[in-house]
Recover the amino acids of this structure.
């Protein structure tokens, strides 16, 4: 098992900070940072969390730092359906419902969908049932020919967007499971090229006899103290032109139900 010093040094290197940089940010001496990293000083739980805060360590990994230093984990990880997360779950549901008639969904750090609004459901109607077995993974759903990939006109662009986002995730916080998913679905090939776009990259979907042009935004919790909330994100899709808006705002795909994926 890694020591607290080894873990802190690894995170510091990952953030490309010197011991002095970290010390100044955490308002401690560079000597103290050095003593902690080399195991010659045992940090308090408060010091572990102070250094983790300056290193922007995710809550899941802050627990690992605390355990390595001999302290109990500080942050709970509850399922989104837990009673303690009722207010947060209701907030996510309100965001999803308020975005109708446009599609929106919530997913976790490994892109497993945890909740959708009703506007997503028509697009899943012809997806291979194998891809809809929980946990439903958004990357697989979007890139597998048995899923939504066959509907996406500019699949290379969409794959490039996914690739960029997952790379940023891995740069922010290494994760073996996410890295394996990247290797499976997003490893670039010689034919891949950066997407070409003036303002933002649109996703063009051929559905219902039309080509729908969509762009998306991401919403996260601002001050989470639970691992689940720290890792959940809501992706909301918007029509990029009047024709796409009319499809969703008219009879269009219809809204058939709401709730968890």
């Amino acid at each position: 098992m890694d020591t607290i010093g080894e873990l802190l040094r690894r995170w510091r290197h990952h953030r490309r900070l010197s011991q002095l940089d970290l010390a100044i940010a955490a308002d401690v001496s560079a000597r103290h940072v050095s003593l902690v990293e080399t195991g010659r000083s045992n940090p308090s739980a408060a010091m572990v969390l102070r250094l983790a805060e300056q290193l922007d360590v995710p809550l899941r990994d802050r627990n690992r730092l605390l355990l390595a230093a001999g302290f109990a984990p500080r942050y709970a990880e509850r399922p989104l359906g837990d009673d303690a997360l009722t207010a947060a779950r209701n907030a996510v549901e309100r965001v999803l419902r308020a975005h109708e008639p446009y599609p929106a969904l919530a997913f976790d750090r490994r892109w497993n969908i945890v909740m959708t609004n009703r506007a997503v459901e028509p697009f899943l109607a012809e997806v291979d049932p194998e891809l809809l077995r929980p946990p439903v993974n958004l990357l697989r759903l979007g890139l597998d020919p048995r899923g939504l990939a066959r509907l996406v006109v500019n699949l290379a662009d969409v794959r490039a967007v996914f690739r960029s986002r997952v790379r940023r995730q891995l740069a922010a916080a290494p994760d073996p499971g996410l890295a394996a998913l990247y290797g499976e679905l997003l490893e670039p090939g010689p034919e891949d090229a950066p997407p070409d776009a003036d303002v933002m990259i649109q996703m063009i979907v051929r559905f219902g006899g039309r080509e729908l042009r969509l762009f998306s935004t991401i919403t996260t919790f601002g001050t989470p103290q639970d691992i689940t909330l720290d890792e959940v994100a809501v992706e909301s899709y918007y029509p990029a032109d009047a024709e796409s808006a009319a499809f969703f705002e008219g009879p269009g795909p219809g809204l058939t139900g709401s709730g968890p994926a």
Q: What stands out?
A: Residues 254-261 have pLDDT under 50 and may be disordered. Strands lie at 104-107, 113-116, 203-207, 210-220, 233-239. Residues 155-172 form the longest helix (18 residues). The chain has eleven helices and five strands.
